Amino acid sequence: MPATVEIRRAADRAVTTTSWLNSRHSFSFGDHYDPANTHHGLLLVNNDDVVAPAAGFDTHPHRDMEIVTWVLSGALAHHDSTGNHGVIYPGLAQRMSAGSGILHSEKNDSATEPVHFVQMWVIPDKTGISPSYQQHEIDDELLSGLVTIASGIPGHDAAITLHNRNAALHGARLEPGGAVNLPTAPYLHLFVARGRLTLEGVDTVNEGDAVRFTDADGRRLTTDEPSEVLIWEMHSKLGG
C-alpha cells in the first residue's frame, strides 16, 4: 500500500445538533452514514462534542468497544452499571471497556458552563471481556511533548490501558515554537483539538481538522500558537 496523507477539514464533518448537543463526527456515526468513511485503521469514532450546561447523554448501552474520552474544557460526569462514577476534566484520561455489555450516562457536571470533549472508539482484541473503567491524571505531562494517553501496544508506558495490542493514543499541548515528531505506524490519525499547526511537507491544519496517514513516516509537527493534538498510532486495521 502506498503511503498517503489525507487532510479532512473541520467544516466537512457531519454534524448532529439538538437543543443541548453539538456533535461533529470524523467518521460515520448515528444517522450520518457514509460507506466510504466508516473508520481509519482501528479508529471507528472521533466525535467532537459540546454539551450544554446541566444536560447530557442519559443512560444507554455499549458492547465490545474501547471508549476513550478526553475533555478539552469543562467537566463531564460519568456513571455506569458496574458502579463506577466520577468527573472527567482536562488532563484526566478516561477509558471505558464496554466488553460483554455496560450501561452508562455522561452529563455536563456544570449548571452554568458547557463541556467540550472528544470521544474516540476502537474495537478490543477480544469480544465479551468483562466491562471495566480506568482513569488517570496526566495534565502537566502534556506540556513536555508527545505523551501516551492510552495504549495496548506491548512495551508502551501509558497512563491508561487499552484492550487492543495494536492501538495507542498520544496527546500533546504545544506552546508557540513547540514541535513534536509523529509516531511511525502503518496507520495514524491526527486530530487538532485546538489551535493551528504546520505538518512538515504537507500543509497547515486548524482546529477540528484531522489527518489520516498510511505508512506514517514520523514527520514533524510545529506550531506558532497554543495548540493541542490527539494522535492515534495503529499497527493494524479493521479486519486485518
Question: CATH class, anyone?
Answer: Mainly Beta
**If you consult CATH, what is the topology?**
Jelly Rolls
Question: How do the helices and strands follow one another from N- to C-terminus?
Answer: EEEEEEEEEEEEEEEEEEEEEE
Helix content: under 10%
CATH superfamily: Jelly Rolls
Main structural class: mainly beta
Q: What proportion of the residues form beta strands (DSSP E)?
A: over 45%
Distance between the termini: 13 Å
Overall geometric form:
globular
Specify the number of helices: 0
- Count the beta strands: 22
Strand adjacency order, main sheet: 1-20-17-22-15-13-14
Can you summarize this structure?
By secondary structure, the protein is mainly beta.
Question: How is this structure best described in words?
Answer:
The model has no long low-confidence stretch (mean pLDDT 94). The protein has one domain (4-234): Jelly Rolls (Sandwich), CATH 2.60.120.10. The two termini are 13 Å apart. It has no helices and 22 strands. With 240 residues, the chain is an all-beta fold.
